[in-house]
Amino acid sequence: ASFGFRNVPEEAKEGMVREVFDSVAAKYDLMNDASSMGVHRLWKDEFVASLQPGRRGPQKCIDVAGGTGDIALRILDFAREKYACRETTVDVVDINGQMLKEGFKRFKKTMYHNTPQISFTEGNAQGLSKEQFPNNTYDLYTIAFGIRNCTSIPAVLEEAYRVLKPGGTFACLEFSRVDNPLLSTLYDQYSFSVIPLLGTILAGDRQSYQYLVESIRRFPAQAEFSRMIRDAGFKTGKDVDGAAWVNLWGGIACIHTGVKV
Ligand code: SAM
């Protein structure tokens, strides 16, 4: 469609139960802010700044599990503000049409609305449509706080590898493992008591936030995830002139990158 909202049933596009989606997204953003005390914004800024979108000219980017477009907006703003680049594009993909709908609404208030710079498509990170997302298409693949929710990490990495051009970059921002024992204890206390409590108070939904905390614990630690990225065929670390990962806040979150060879 001309406004770049693909794969959503026609009847869902207009006249959706707006209140429902409003409340979902409102709670989502509120909980994000509350549970991380706003820190997720700083991490996202750092994630995008580390990728320098637009530095080497316009880039074709895909932001998978992109939700309401937090990363996409930062990529486009960064390229424009830092490198005066208005030709970098981001295709946002998410399995949840409601999140995309919120993202689309949000982008309506930006200069990117109705431009080829942004599109929203429903899709599964573990099996992207080959017609919509052909092999060797993108310069940059981003996934922020999304891979943890996928049932098969190798399947996500395989798809990332497929859609990236040779030389393209895979970049993941995700909660990770804290190695400092003191920080780790404080963080455990915080996440196992405060976050489910906030979930109950703010969203009336303790279980979802309990799940959130548990999914963070289950996700592989830095070195293991890095090995999985290499197993998918990417080069990481010294091979590509940098660190395989960069911890944020002692490992509470972490940026992993890899380059398709
Ligand atoms: N990247 C956004 C951000 O950082 O604000 C959203 C993160 S949100 C915590 C996780 C997102 O992953 C949700 O929007 C959810 O719908 C999406 N998601 C979960 N499983 C997915 C899958 N298999 N494929 C694509 N998206 C998925």
Question: Could you describe the 3D structure shown?
Answer:
This protein is of the alpha/beta class and 261 residues long. The chain contains 9 helices and 9 strands. 38% of the residues are buried. Helix 2 (18-36) packs across helix 5 (97-108) and helix 3 crosses helix 4 (70-83). Residues 1-23 have low confidence and may be disordered. Helix 5 (97-108) links the parallel strand 3 (89-94) and strand 4 (118-122). The longest helix is centred in the C-terminal third of the chain and has 23 residues, at 181-203. S-adenosylmethionine binds next to helix 4. S-adenosylmethionine binds at residues 64-67, 70-71, 94-96, 99, 124-126, 144-146, 149-150.
Structural features:
single chain; 261 residues; alpha/beta; 9-stranded mixed β-sheet; 9 helices; 20% strand; globular; disordered N terminus; binds S-adenosylmethionine
Give a nutshell description of this structure.
It contains nine helices and nine strands.
Write the SSE topology.
Layout lengths: L4 E2 L3 H4 L4 H19 L2 H13 L8 E5 L5 H14 L5 E6 L2 H12 L9 E5 L15 E7 L8 H11 E12 L5 H23 L2 H13 L3 H10 L2 E2 L9 E4 L4 E8 L1
Parallel strand pairs: 1-4, 2-3, 2-5, 3-4, 5-6
Antiparallel strand pairs: 6-9, 7-9, 8-9
The structure holds S-adenosylmethionine.
